[in-house]
Each structure stands twice: as structure tokens, then as C-alpha cells.
Amino acid sequence: MLNIPLRILFSGGLRLGESILKLEKMEYTFVKLGDDKYPIKFGFNALRKYSMKTGTTLNELNKLGADMNLNNALILIYCGIEDGYRAAKQECKLSVDDLADLMDGDFDAIGRCMEVLTQMMGGDSEKKPKPKKAKS
Q1: pTM beyond 0.85, yes or no
Q2: Hey, is 39 helix, strand or coil?
Q3: How far is CA 120 from CA 4, 18, 97, in A?
Q4: How many whole angstroms separate alpha carbon 24 and alpha carbon 7?
Q5: Which string of DSSP letters, residue by residue, matches 90-114?
Q6: How far apart are CA 81 and CA 96, in angstroms?
């Protein structure tokens, strides 16, 4: 499950309730799907497109990844790849169906894409061990 607080997602002094929204300008990276690498970028534009395609509200983006169904996960990844192509100034000829086909047989592909999302949003993708309690 990926749960990114809004304070990590966006920037610019915008406040939504108690959350400060923060997003830094970022470049795209690449993710390997099938035999090829695809540009991917999870910025504000990718999240905007995801919101439009899924009807997700700004407040719901705070729970991005929690109880996400497969279709929404593929749409989120597609929006990131589509925006990666835009940032690379290339045409994206991929569809959500094409993306799903690329993931057939590669069960780690969704995880790799969500890892990129976590890194781009400033989240901590590594699980840190809990500190041990001192004995009294």
C-alpha cells in the first residue's frame, strides 16, 4: 500500500485543511516494462490527469494507493508514463490496454512503477526498522 500525505505531493504554499501541499519540479526517469524502458514522471500534471480519468478528488489523493483497484493502478501508471513522454518531448503511443499487456508475466512491474511514484513524491520507499525500546 502506498499512502502519500498531501504535504509531500504538492508545493507552493497551498494549504488544504491541515496539510501543506508540496511538489518540487522534477524530471522524468525510466521504468523497464517488458523488453523496453519507458519515460515516467509523476508530477502534478500526471496526478491531474489521473484525477480527471478516475474522478479522484484532491483530498482522496492523500490516500493514493490505499485500497486501489487494478484498473486505477494501471491508470495511475499510465498517467505517469504519458507525462514522462510529454516531459521527454515525445509522443506517447501507449494505451492503458497496451500497458496492461506489458505487465503480463512481470508481476513486479506495478511495484517498480509505484516505487518511482514514491521516490518522485519525496516519500521514503525503504522500510526503516523500529527502534528497540530501552530495557528498564
Answers
A1: no
A2: strand
A3: 11, 22, 25
A4: 11
A5: ------HHHHHHHHTT-TTHHHHHH
A6: 10
